[in-house]
Amino acid sequence: MKSPSPSQDLSGVVDVEQAEAALVEHYPRLVRLAYLVLPPSLGRNRRVLTAHALTQRALPRSRRSGESEVIPVQRGGDGRSGDPGYAYMRLRVIGTALDAGLPLRWRAWPKRSQLPPLLPQVWGLRLFPRSGGADELALDQGLSALSGPARAAYVLRGLERLTDSDVRNVLAATGVEDPAAALAEADGVGASYKLLQSPEFDPCSLQARPTDLMRRRQHMKAAGVALAAALVCGALLGLPGGGWNPDGAAAPPYAKNPAGQAALDPGQLTRAAPAAWKQSARTDFSVWPARGGLVGDEALLRRALAVWARPGESVQVSATPGTAAGAPPGPAQLLFAGEVDAARVVLLYDGLRVVRYAEPKDGTSGAALDFARVDGATSAEAGAVVVNRVDGNVRYLTAPWVGGVSLRDLLKPGAGATPVKRDGDGVTAPFASPAQARACTSWNTLQLRDDAGVNRLSSDLGELVPAHLTAGRPQAPREATAADWSGTACSLTAARSNGVRSVNSWQYARQVLPEANGPAAWLCTRADTWRGPGSRVLAQFKAAGAAAVAAKAEDSAACGPRKPLVLAGVRWKSRGGNWYLLGGGSRGVVSVAMSGGVPSTGNTLAVPTKRDARTGLTGRLADGTKVPTLR
Fold first, then answer.
1. Which one, 188, 276, 309, 347, has least CB within 10 Å?
2. Over pLDDT 70: what percentage of the chain?
3. How far apart are CA 353 and CA 374, in angstroms?
4. Cis peptide before 266 (omega within 30 of 0)
5. Is the pLDDT of residue 68 over 50?
6. Residues paired with residue 444 on neighbouring β-strands, in sequence order
7. Average pLDDT of the segment spanning 151-178
8. Distances in whole angstroms, Cα of residue 217 to Cα of each of 309, 332, 473
């Protein structure tokens, strides 16, 4: 083997053929370089294979067979004449060997040289250089105590016979941050440079020994068991059962069980008789008949059930707060299947939830799945379900007992109701919804007249089932009218998308304003949810036809049937420019007092104050119990 010049110039360019010639001619020396720079902690067998792999991968790749690639060589070398091809290959080998010695980190993607080599591979044998004497062992221990850059500096100085200046240039070219520190660290190992030529450090002159034969047998048995288990699992997953195509946008099937399979079978869907609601003791979603032009489309129903059970990544899934979005526990009830606008829509009911599946008419991509909790619904709350929303408009499917549908604007209580047309399946014509409106200039509500002639108001709050609007004392609320909500309709924006079941508006106190400013009213609006927790309460002060929020609370029993008590206060400015602290309490509150002030003789209070005054209110019941303000 021709030995390379001890120092080469790192300037100029090297083509692929020149690098390949240097690799073939100086392969044993380059492998020895890599072996010495690699950390001894790898073990001699892996160190040998890694040194060969790094040296073989150091050769640059050409774009096409027979076509040379011009590669710039990094400048800043040792400054002597020599073989630029060897200098380039040495630089590549040293750099990858240093990278291989870096520790793996969780947050950093590993470099190729940090991973075990793919080639060469040796099975059933351990390869290692011939053993040396005590001096070689001492040198190997000394090198193992050095850092990677220090080992490289020692090897370049001893094996390559480079000057310290040349060593610094080579280390800097490989990306070492502090070459001078690496040289200083290498000085701590004795200058036994001749030992670097020893067979102890020659990865091309190797001895072979078998691996642990007993452990190999154990590994073979374990591999056989794992392979058998994999084959069994693959056979189970490959059993026939519908597959991907007929399920549209659904994800791959999960493990099957009888109840789960029945829930996915469109033939197992329950359907109420068309006149079941007339004889039933209950009037809720369980007596809705199946309607729509696609109730017989088994392919559509199968896709809807499959997506419900396992929605794929492309499915847009939404659920009201507190509503489980899991698979059906058993066969569900079909409420509707038909084409609405540009979509095919399926409505299902499982006794706890109403589920809406929608897909475009021209395919299954972009499917949507919506869940709403409706357990314990009454006829007032099961009167309508959203079938589609388009461009701020909404369509409803109405209950079979709904005899008439009209639209009322709560902000215009004096205006008459506008009739809403329905098709033969009970689907309404589209109308503007306040659910996503930014400005509160109108508030359209659905007025449903049942078979007994009772009119009920329901408001769209952005969910599948509209919220039932009531008015009056919490212990005995009544059906609301547009007049009951004319001043407080805009407060319904605070209840959007919260899983609201019903909203009650209660005028709990009236008050005559100071300085002959006219009457005022105190109202409490309570939004109750299907899930129980999450109720929202607003206390509002209404004067001169406008209402302002005085206080609000969440998860409070105030204004509800269990605690029909409320007290709120507000700073108010009269037409004369004077400021007052006003307070209003519900029935049962016999006095209201400002903090440190004289209590009133009644459930309202009006005392002069300053605009920026901060003070609290306290009310008392007849037995002396304190009633705090709503907060």
1. 188
2. 86
3. 5
4. no
5. no
6. 409
7. 91
8. 45, 54, 82
Question: 358: which DSSP letter?
Answer: E
Give 349-352 contacts, CB < 8 A, sequence gap 24+: 349/285, 349/286, 349/288, 349/374, 351/286, 351/375, 352/324
Provide the token pair at 229: 């288990």
Neighbour tally for 75: CB within 10 Å: 11
| Averaged pLDDT of the chain | 85
Task: Provide the pLDDT for residue 6.
Answer: 40
**Contact between residue 358 and residue 243 where contact means Cβ atoms under 8 Å apart:** no
CA 335, distance to chain mean position in Å, is 31
Assess contact for 230 and 283: CB atoms under 8 A.
Answer: no
Q: Parallel, antiparallel, or unpaired: how do β-strands 368-373 and 384-390 relate?
A: unpaired
Range with the poorest average pLDDT among 89-98, 364-373, 573-582, 593-602 = 593-602
Of residues 226 and 428, more confidence is placed in: 428
14-24 pLDDT, tens digit each: 778 888 888 88
C-alpha to C-alpha distance for 597 and 594, rounded to whole angstroms: 5
d(CA 125, CA 207): 10
Q: Strand pairing partners for 191?
A: none
- β-partners of residue 339 are 344
Residue tagged 């400013």 (tokens): 517
Which structure tokens are listed for 326?
């899991």
Q: In degrees rounded to 5, what are phi and psi of residue 374?
A: -140, 25
Task: State yes or no: pLDDT of 67 exceeds 60.
Answer: no
Q: What is the 3-state secondary structure (H, E, C) of 43-67?
A: CHHHHHHHHHHHHHHCCCCCCCCCC
Angle between helices 16-25 and 27-37 (to 10 degrees): 80
Strands 500-512 and 519-529 come out as antiparallel
Q: Please state the φ and ψ torsions of residue 520, each to the nearest 5 degrees.
A: -140, 160
User: Taking a C-beta distance cutoff of 8 angstroms, is the pair 401, 379 a contact?
Assistant: yes
Q: Report how far residue 386's alpha carbon sits from residue 375's, in angstroms, rounded to the nearest whole number.
A: 17
pLDDT per residue as tens digits for the range 544-582: 878 899 999 999 999 999 999 999 999 999 999 999 999
**CB distance 10 to 73 below 8 Å:** yes
Tell me how crowded residue 91 is: count the other CB atoms within 10 A of its CB: 21
Round to whole Å and give the CA distance between 432 and 434: 7
Distance CA 97, CA 37 (A): 6
Q: What's the residue count for the chain? A: 631
Strand, helix or coil for residue 113: helix
Torsion of CA 488, 490, 496, 502, to 10 degrees: 30
What secondary structure letter does DSSP report for 180?
H
What is the structure's pLDDT at 7?
A: 41
Residues 204 and 32: their CA atoms lie apart, in Å, by 8
Give the contacts of 138 (CB within 8 A, at least 6 positions apart).
192
pLDDT of residue 271 exceeding 70, the answer is yes
Work out whether strand 617-621 and strand 589-594 pair parallel, antiparallel, or are unpaired: antiparallel
